[in-house]
Batch of 4 targets.
Target 1
Amino acid sequence: MRIAIDGWGGDKAPEAIVKGIILATSKGGPDLIVTGDEQKLSSEFKKQGGQPENVKIFHAPDIVSMDEAPSRALKEKKDSSLMQAAQLVKDGQADAFISAGNTGATMAAGIFLVGRLKGIDRPGIATPVPGHSRMALLIDAGANSECKTQNLVEFALMGKVFMEKIHARSGARVGLLNVGEEPGKGTKTYQQAHEKLADNPDINFTGNVEGREIFKDVCDVVVCDGFVGNITLKVMEGAAGTLVDILKSEVKKSIRSKIGALLMKGSLTTMKERMDYEEYGGAPLLGLKAPVIICHGSSSEKAIMNAIFVAQEMVEKRVMENLENISLKNNSD
């Protein structure tokens, strides 16, 4: 197995990428190909203690900036670290690719270079979200602002397979994110999706899920279009950040508060870890012929390491083949 990594993707590249690669290899990670300027990457590896034996550098001198238009990146940045990572998968030299760079360009590279699975109309970004006792999967988290009914059904099927294969959630429960619990709520597309999901024997459908219920472990997969999903994620991130800021502010107000915070340090650390996106590495773009992991732009070495292990597990457990099989079966039905 070989996994390609965009060596110049993200706000902290190449340092965080190189450190993440070294961390992963120290824990028995797979063979890796890191794309980017060969001289600069070699220099960074030396700075961090040396290049691991199972890591190769693939020279890709160009860079896709974070604000670059995906279409321009595809046409004019073919020698970039991001595009070459995807090209390695297309050429059969890598089994998956990872990038913490431009999200739109990563999606475009995945769709046009790696290619869609048969039976999948639109790939979806599957993002882990924290829950009361365990995480759930939100799909789509931003790849498709407008969706047809069948797209939502496909997201449900893909999320189900991912949770069953990667997180051992047998009979993964699927909920449809909506403005109310009743089947008749939401737009016509969501109403039709509710009907199709309820009638699908391959989906353990629990019904509509309101936004406040996402964190209450009522389902394992939360389905929505990318417009709703991305807004939901951004609200979560903002609320979590504000909560942390309020706690820090309140703790400093009195000695009693400081003592209380000290006593609760273990619990607060556990809560932080459960809400930390870096624990999950990144968000898979499900529906492609090979695993593509989209990492947060500010990913640290910990997130990169975990993204490597997610990609490795997806290849080992043949997640893409399972996605294709179930999508073809449902299309034939």
Target 2
Amino acid sequence: MKDKQKSGEILIEVKNLCKAYGNHKVLENVNTVIRKGEVISIIGPSGCGKSTFLRSINRLEKPEKGQIIYNGMDVLDKNTDINKIRQKIGMVFQQFNLFPHMTVKKNIMIAPVKLNGVDKEKAEKDAADLLERVGLSDKADAYPENLSGGQKQRIAIARTMAMHPEIILFDEPTSALDPEMVVEVLEIMKELAATGMTMLVVTHEMGFAKEVSDRVMFFDEMNIKEEGTPDEVFGNPKSQRLKEFLSKVR
């Protein structure tokens, strides 16, 4: 558990969130709050709604019911400018989603220049600073095809950070990586958490969840079945279902 100050101020409030694909319910009446500076790990079996919940927060999925209130705005309201919201709710995917025809540096620069109107010279300097931060200064002029999976994911994190988001959503960021590359990505995420960045992380990396999280959510059967500090969730699980899950992943 890290030692950092959190404001306690609510950044996102989720109310009665419901999502289905046809007759198949994925989320049912999910309620929670996310506070500024919190790092929350979301764990649970495959197919329990973890990624759908995460993707609903910036409306990559469209829930049928409920509200997601971010800075006083309902993300799910059709009148909300979702592109503006997504500039402040960053996302890191499993599969990196880098532009293959652009250099690493240009991948990081494009969104600040195109969406935020940042001057190219400043965007280039910021990209250089971010590349140094993720330990890849020597890859500025490389193309994604010449990078390892771990390097691509570190670039994807740098690209998200370039937009100066208020919160970053991580959707199983290490699941597509070879085991030796997982560590380098988790180290960057740990450093980011230590700076006070609000982070919501769907993960199978229980060590990361224990060490870095302020709160852990256990998803199962379309909802948050249990949540608490890492000590509470991992050290003293209340439900038999969580005990069974942890016995399988340890």
Target 3
Amino acid sequence: MISSRIDIELLERFEKGLDPLNPHRSEIPAHIIGYGEISTIFEILDPSQQGLAFKRLPIFRTRDEMDQYERLFLEYNRLLGEDIGIRVPSYCLARIYPPQGNMVIYNVQERLPAESICNSIIRNLPPGELATLLRSVLMAMKKVWAYNEANTGIEVGLDSQISNWAISGGPHRSSVFDKAADLIYIDTGTPLMKINGVEQLNSDLFLRSAPSFLVWLIKRFFLDDVLNRYYDFHLVVVDLIANLYKEQRKDVVPLAIDTANSFFETELAELCLKPITLKEVTSYYREDAFIWRLYLALRKFDRFLHTRIFHQPYPYILPGKITR
């Protein structure tokens, strides 16, 4: 059990001595191993925590909020792993109660080898094998939508971009890529689930990391669209393919579109999904890249205001420069 390896006392010391601007200079240093659009994944450089990957959520103001998030997180992981049949890494959650500021939950996972994460795998993957890998991801996604169709009142969402998947045992050739069971879904910290059409994730929690001057705008004009896209198979696949631009594989985008459309026709004919077009993917990526680039710039400006102008702590570890 991964939970038996978590040293709460060490986490408390890590939190107390953390330098969010320079995590590697913290009292207990941290090494960044991956960036998402919002969160940062790191390892704590203490021998007792070797082999663990941490995502820090300093967003909770009450214990009730922590309870609600933990219940949803555990149920989401259980559904994926037990009911739907998608593998997830070993995981646990750990609570920290700093003397000031928001309460913190650390989402801890078994750290997988960097070379097993699919965005690393695809960098030098021949087009034919990449198409096979993409089809395996689509087969895994199909399990989620089949579950949603079979369970009235429950919908599970998925952010299926390629960096959210890993291959069990590291990179292999297409004979392994043919098996969706070899895929591991690693982005389980945003548990997307609807019950009777109502989103169960308290999105206000994640808005707390946004600049205060943007919260009203995001909530009014963007939030519902962003969350709802992860329940729409067509849009999730568009996002998956558009993400290939970010991963520097523009060369395989047309092939990925053909692979997805063929999958729609053969494996998901009953859903009558409209075909994906190159124009749709490129337009989606340009808009998405612009929004996230602007959002990160504004978060850095917000950090500047906190730390340099108002001399207040800024609790979030921001991503570094993201190549797009």
Target 4
Amino acid sequence: MQRIVKGAGLGLAALVVISGAAWLAFVPFAKEPGYTFITSWGGPGSAPGKFHDPTGIAVTDDEVFVSDARNARIQVFDHDGRFKRQFGSKGDAPGQLGRPMNLAIFAEELYVADYWNDRIDVFGLDGTYRRSVGRKGNEPGSFNAPGGVAVAADGHLFVADFYNQRIQELAPDGSFIRQWGTTGAAGIWAGEFNYPTGVTVGPDGTIIVADGYNDRVQVFARDGHFLRKWGGPFALNIFGPFNGWFATVTSVTVDDLGHVYVADFYNNRIQKFAADGTFLSSFGEQGSGPGQFRHAMAVAVSRDGTVFATDLLNHRVSIWAPRP
């Protein structure tokens, strides 16, 4: 009996050691002090300054652009949340919007991933309609519910083509260059996608993808080669609430230093990583109070490091500042 008890004790000890090692391997500690909640603005409604499902967000040095999805418009604020203007109306005509999603700003123009109209709409920052790129379909250069868009320094577009399970690269005139992923085929391996939701371009030219329902981030070289991925054990569609894990990724952005910020939708938080995927910090929790989210939907970072995030079901924008 003593041998049995001793053997059981050794087995339990070994299990504890293995579990601890696995925890340390797959659940990293924060390496930065995190962020402090500053304020939020908005609330449900259709009046100027109110939202019905805010989705995408992008910032300039003095303005914040927000996709007010169900109201089919873009609203513009100063950095303190004061309403300035709005543009767009519901429809599919030029200059109208179906369901605007993630946003990008390049060369004084706002690029809007229009989920329901299956196109990228381009506006001047004053709201003047300029042009649209793409059409509905699954052939090269067409889209099926684009969720995100990014623009490289040379003007090339990168589009998260949600139902087509791919990322497309297009020339500035909309002509097809290449794609990542197999059209219409979801997958969990490197270079495959499970409903990609967003995309951004790092300061080094890498293409960083919010691989939405795979609960991970994937990174590619500009020439198309896969570089790395992260999110849960081996980044293989294993979701969870732990540091560095995700429960549906809906937006991704970078700052000037290459840090990657990820909207972690069902975990109601924003997570921050180094360019190589090293977990740095996270902020936010579930709820309707200050500093809480009811689904963190999109994230943007200003030049001074302030973080702006859309809070989908609280119908607001939240602002966070890095702790010293």
